[in-house]
Amino acid sequence: MNSMESCTSSNDNNHWRAEEAIGGNAQALQALRELIIFPLQFSHQAQKLGLKWPRGLLLYGPPGTGKTSLVQAVVRECGAHLTIISPHTVHRAHAGESERILREAFSEASSHVALGKPTVIFIDEIDALCARRDSKREQDVRVASQLFTLMDSNKPTLSSPGVVVVASTNRVDAIDPALRRSGRFDTEIEVTVPNEEERFQILKLYIKKVPMDSSLDLKSIAASCNGYVGADLEALCREATMFAIKRSSNMENDASDFSLSMEDWKNARSVVGPSITRGVTVEIPKVTWEDIGGLKDLKKKFQQAVEWPIKNSAAFSRLGISPIRGILLHGPPGCSKTTLAKAAAHAAQASFFSLSGAELYSMYVGEGEALLRKTFQRARLAAPSVIFFDEADVVAAKRGDSSSNSATVGERLLSTLLTEIDGLEEAKGILVLAATNRPYAIDAALMRPGRFDLVLYVPPPDLEARYEILCVQTRQMKTGNDVDLGRLAEDTELFTGAELEGLCKEAGIVALREDISASVVCDRHFWTAKSSLKPALTKAEIDSYSSFLKTSSRALPSHFESSLQHDKNKKNKMDPLSLVKVGVVSCVLLAAARYYYSMLGGQTVHDIAT
Q1: Dist. CA 592–CA 520, nearest whole Å
Q2: 433 - beta bridge partners?
Q3: 440-476 burial by CB neighbour count: b if 16+ within 10 A, else e?
Q4: Which neighbouring-strand residues pair with 430?
Q5: What pLDDT does residue 10 have?
Q6: Most C-beta atoms within 10 A of its C-beta, which of 158, 254, 294, 306?
Q7: How confident is the model over 16-39, as pLDDT tens digits?
């Protein structure tokens, strides 16, 4: 057949396994084996039990995850006959040609089954062949109807499984629902984006014949490739090899005598990125905890909330602990809320997606909600991921505060955000971080546990933190021996981290203003810069943030909790004398009631009334 790709796999080595060519996706691999191999291995048991084998399997997942490679590897493993059908081989200009090609493919496959050979028909990109019939395209309707007829006629018997039909798609929702019912594609398997361990296995497969430098750490490379699918990793290995060859040729060595180094991988990563996140800014930030001065307690809480669930997920699963889904950072402007989020993502080696209110508010209806949904979808694919919302009070403003059009847009965005956060319950390795300067403006629905599980106050730096920030900001500066950062920290009360950074930059400008050829920044330059700057923060503003911290506490107030405990103790604990008193009174009342009843001659209350 000229329009079909048809081949028969001969497995000369009976010990060859699909894992030698495929990394990860164990669930899909096992499902394919059961569909193709089980009918041959257990035909006698099937006849005895009256079992009819399933006829179809649908593989779905992002492009490049290895759906076609999975099918080809399993077919090779079991030595089956494979016929591949793709849209470009089926679609024809003349009416009836496409249906004829499908019939011929199934007819050829049936002839191999009649000879006792396992046969697989693989339909690639089935969404293009069998789209929803509401598309109104006559050709699509005809092709879909023909495929339904062929699959329904492919009925397995007790002695023969019939032709196994496997299909793949990147858009499972675009397929006609009639194709997904039981009896056609009985099983649907998602081929997911590989996790860190699976990426490591895939990388080992691709470079098993390539010499590697002793300093090369393949596990760290796999850990840094969040969101890379199999096709991306193949391209990454190819680019790294090309960089190694170029480097070797520049050193006037034999081009064949080379080895891959970490530098080659870094260069390759600058060229090849994850295909599933193209069009969206995603990165693993380069900010570290050492770049943030002070905030020791906050850093520790962040490590527990962000790093632990990602790096020690097995421990959380073992104890049945659900990781935190959301963290809200609130505090004055310029106090390192965004920097904290980036440092946490870097420490956890997580992909970082950043969104602000300005990006989500659009002149077109529904565009902001679509961007939100797309960001969460890509974060799932690139997990572990951190989604950061800057100026969260704009995205999650309280509902009903205004009747303007912007309020309506805000309510739609909030509803979408709530839906997406609630949908993270089944997703693993995704954390939502939000920062705001106006915590009171955020809708209460977001503040409940299960959404923002943790509310953290990021205070302005104290004396120790100011000194550490000044040290961090002057690390790359050439400062004179007379510079006293400790005294400067003491005299910059109410300065935020951003203002201290600005102070250091201004000191450098002052030094250049004084002498353009200056080689160091002296103490007087810092004090001159300090005299021109004033803190924007006031003590009243700090008190307002602190008061929100108290009112937003999830625990009961201590005085209320102690009173509850006191009441509980009163109810549960009675001294022996009180118990005796209660018993005596009960006996007296019971005796009096019996005496009164006997004096009435056994009459009831109803008899007395009448």
Answers
A1: 101
A2: 327, 388
A3: eebbeebbeeebbbbbbbbbbbeeebbbbbbebbbee
A4: 385
A5: 54
A6: 306
A7: 788 888 888 888 888 888 877 787
Which token pair is 227? Answer: 């969101």
Contact 308, 454 (CB under 8 A): no
What local confidence, expressed as pLDDT, does residue 160 receive?
A: 59
- Which pLDDT does position 512 carry in this prediction? 92
The tens digit of pLDDT for each residue in 510-543 reads: 999 988 888 889 988 989 989 888 888 888 888 8
Structure tokens belonging to residue 130: 């069998």
Residue 377 CA: distances (Å) to CA of 351, 374, 400, 415 = 13, 5, 29, 16
Closest CA to 84 of 64, 97, 67: 67
Tokens of 506: 């201004």
Q: Is 555 exposed, middle or buried (0-12, 13-18, 19+ CB in 10 A)?
A: exposed
Reported in sequence order, the residue ranges of 310-446 that DSSP labels E, i.e. its strands, are 326-330, 351-356, 385-390, 430-436
Q: Dihedrals φ, ψ of 312, to 5°?
A: -125, 45
Residue 349 host element (H or E): none
CA distance linking residue 53 with residue 56, whole number of Å: 9
Closest CA to 328 of 412, 372, 280, 389: 389
Q: Whole-model pTM above 0.70? A: no
Q: What is the mean pLDDT of each run of 10 residues along the chain (610 residues)?
A: 56 69 83 79 77 82 89 85 86 78 87 80 87 68 83 68 83 84 83 87 88 84 86 91 83 65 88 76 75 86 85 81 86 87 85 82 75 86 85 78 61 85 76 88 83 87 90 88 89 89 91 88 90 85 75 43 39 46 51 46 37
Catalogue the long-range contacts made by 34-42 (C-beta closer than 8 Å, 24 or more residues apart). 35/164, 35/166, 35/187, 36/74, 36/75, 36/78, 36/80, 36/118, 36/120, 36/164, 37/78, 37/118, 39/118, 39/156, 39/160, 39/161, 40/78, 40/118, 40/161
Omega within 30 of 0 (cis) for the link into 285: no
Greatest Cα pair distance, the chain, in angstroms, is 125
CA 97 to chain centre: 44
Tokens of 524: 């007087």
d(CA 433, CA 389): 6
Structure tokens at 405: 């059009």
Q: Which residue has tokens 């030698």?
A: 20
